[in-house]
Amino acid sequence: MVARLAAAGSRRYLPPDGSSTMLDRQEPIPHSGPERIEFACHEIWGGNRSVAAPIELPGIRGALYSRSCDGHRGGDIYYLSVCGSGLLSRFCVADVTGHGEAVASVGSAVHAQMRKFMNRFDQRRILTRLNRRLIEDEFEGMATAVTCTYFPPTRMLSLSAAGHEPAWWYRSQTQQWERLTISDTGRLSNVALGVDPRVRYTRRRIRVRHGDKLVIVTDGAHEARNSSGELFGIDRLDHCLNQHRQLDCPKLVQVIVQRLDEHGAPDWREQDDVTLLALEFVDNLGVNPWLHAIRNRLGIAPAPPVSTTN
Q: Mean pLDDT for the chain?
């Protein structure tokens, strides 16, 4: 079953009327179940409410899990977008200290920059503008973020981070998970948002293979504590990923949450917000990517997809 939050034209990412109208989804309905969230062209979807669902974007199939420590709206922010041609996929995960107005202001700023640059390849601009916006707004909290761009025709993935653990990458060729790093250019590189307007954000570019995967988590996962105060830690997350390397993304997210439950103290879910984004790079466009882009730009609707019921 598919939950088309934008009433999109199936996996080919066309709006139902063939138009290229911007679709903004800043307040997702709390979702938990087997329905897959798919995206239309020119769509941004996200927010900071609890959600658990499979997702699908151009060239990507995966799962998103985000849970607030108070059960409703938290300090973790997530946004996903598809460009006007239906090819460029982008996702951003941010972790903001506190709740309420502080998170709302950062969420609004993230949404604005994701929307402004949704058709641009270089996600570093998003972090640069976001950093300056928070400084101009005299943001007093702390915010970290990781943002990624994926272009299916060349299978090129680009990642940038601001004071945030970038990601874990599963190489289908070696069948191993590894932590990704992003090179700094100097003292004021890739630090948290809202700290200094002179910060420069770098990127790492990777040509992935179909079957490769990516996992992004907020620190609420690896900093979950047990009754003795011991952190779940990066090493446990590394071990969990490699132990379950054959699982698809929705099942992998479920296993990580189970391991956190097994490790954490009875109240660990109340300690911090937790967001997990697991993605697999796939060939899901159905046609030549460039023909796919032309169809989307011209508003030529593809044939209706075949629906199956499990």
A: 80
